[in-house]
Amino acid sequence: MGAVGKSIDKIIPVAKPLMDDREAAAARRAILSGWVTQGPEVAAFEREFAAFVGCDFACAVSSCTTALHLALLAVGVQAGHEVITVSHSFIATANSIRYCNAIPVFVDIDPVTFNIDPGLVESAITQQTRAILAVHQMGMPCDILAVREIASRHHLPLIEDAACAIGSEIEVGEKWERIGRPHGDIACFSFHPRKLLSTGDGGMVTCSNAHYDREFRLLRQHGMSVPDAVRHQARDVIFEDYPILGFNYRMTDIQAAIGREQLKRLPEVLVRRRSLASRYQEKLKQVPGIRVPEEPTWAHSNWQSFCTYLPDHVDQRRVMQAMLDAGISTRRGVMCAHREPAYGEASWYCGGGENRCSGPNCSHLKHSERAQDTTIILPLYHELTETDQDYIVEMLADACRN
Ligand SMILES: *Cc1c(COP(=O)(O)O)cnc(C)c1O
Fold it and tell me: Average pLDDT of 34-42?
């Protein structure tokens, strides 16, 4: 690569969706079909998605955030209830709890996997706890089977924030199963451009409970008893009614048509990302002080993000600036919701029993805070070349040395 710095004209992005004429043709097909919002393309995308993850029911919605909202409503989360989750996640995870006027109760993460520490869940359960919301952060599966054991012992529904985890797998018995079957009660996926499969924006809720699935379909379309696509095809006049308060959380047929093309690419995308991730692991192990992410033996990540701890003495912002000066875009570690102004005192809690607290002096979320402050996310996307990847590793080693 040689001379870099001011003369750089190409910035290596941190992520990049993989789309071309195939997606454009699919969008065109939907546009010219005469039916553009939730209709036959959405129905087909749902069937194909369900077949891919191996679930009984998949319901397409407008985003993972709305998927999480519907999931929490379906399991009965209401005002004043508590939902146990992590602060160390994109803010939408905790926000979805607050949309129900419920209270997020944060537990810390395991510093190695960046995922919920199952050992901390039980002591956070109170009389008010109504559900557990576990995140598969950055595509790395959390220990969902350990959390499920606790949830079922306390008769609590378990929701999976699988926003990042399409194509990730866990070992169950002797078999590998994809995230989303689901292993809890409901799983929620995102199709934002930062994830592996994108529809621009979009989401999917999966479950194996027909009652939940009916509820999602009602709630996503204004609580309307008869979907408009059904009325459109009917030969008899149908009047709909509105038995419950619903939302407009629909996916459009244009988005779904794009999603169907993206789904076809997914196997190839997973192979490529796993190959790039293992190259990063191998090369970054040579850099003193860098700690690379590793999969537990029972997990396969889809490597939605590749997040590494920086050496102890180096400053995160300075390293990120040095990388940007060298033409490489990075991100700091995953945010912590409890540190944001939108999360004022008493809008959340953490810890359990006597030790429960809320607010700026909270001491229960040390691993979460440290992960946000001392890790960086490196570029990883389908079309990243090995040459660019070697350059990224070289520049990171330089930045950590100086
Ligand atoms: C991206 C993301 C979301 C939000 O997904 P949207 O589809 O943008 O609403 C929620 N949770 C996690 C962990 C995410 O990474």
Answer: 96
